[in-house]
Design goal:
There is one protein chain. This protein has about 250 residues and is an alpha+beta fold. About 25% of the residues lie in helices and about 15% in strands. Strands 1, 2, 3, 4, 6, 10, 12 and 13 form an eight-stranded antiparallel β-sheet that branches. A three-stranded antiparallel β-sheet has the order 9-7-11, with no helix packed on it. It is globular and about 60 Å long.
Length: about 250
Amino acid sequence: MKEFIDNGFIRVDEAFPAEVAAECRAICWQETGCDPDDPATWTEPVIRLGSCAQEPFRQAANTPRLYRAFDQLVGAGRWLPRKSIGTIPIRFPHPGDPGDDGWHIDGGYHPEEQKSGPPWVNVHSRCRALLMLFLFSDTTDNDAPTRIRAGSHLYVPSRLEAAGEEGMSTGDLAAAGLFEATADLPQVLATGHAGDVYLCHPFLVHAAQSHHGTTPRFLAQPPLYPAEPYQLERANADYSAVELAIRRGLGK
């Protein structure tokens, strides 16, 4: 728990079976229409698949190992099992600009009067309990691993506190200089084997990057949804790791 609070993430090795990851990759190849044995068919730097809900993806997201980690980080009974794995960006070795490699945090909602534009976030991380990175392929330094700024999640709460329950857009957070403020923090690459999962604080600053290797990278980045809102003032002090990190960012 201390590692998660300090750095904003942990890697759960072998969170789901490598055999399940292989089944998921096979489904993804079929969906893309690309030939895994013919790089000439890899004509885009990134292809995004929609919310994949086939059985292998559901299995990957719902293992006892992950459930134990969710309980430790979010709190038992405070999160909802996933029924799909969410969007899958597949990154290919390609000279083109992927166009999506900027530093950011993920929001969880839009205000009622605004249905489009950058997602919003508030100090209680409304609608998002965790950011998760599911590795469906072996991922080395050259295979477009997600870039993570370790400890960046602690810079976010103080910027959100004044916005209250309504919160603010992630675009406004960027305009307020959040990402420049975290630029000197250590950078970690989300590398690992197929079946590993990074469980990240919802406020963690991260970014995609171009692929410089030879083998396409398969990743899902779904949120874990909360069963109840995070609370920053609990009478019994039964805080989750996510709540403790937010409180530290607020100087509590």
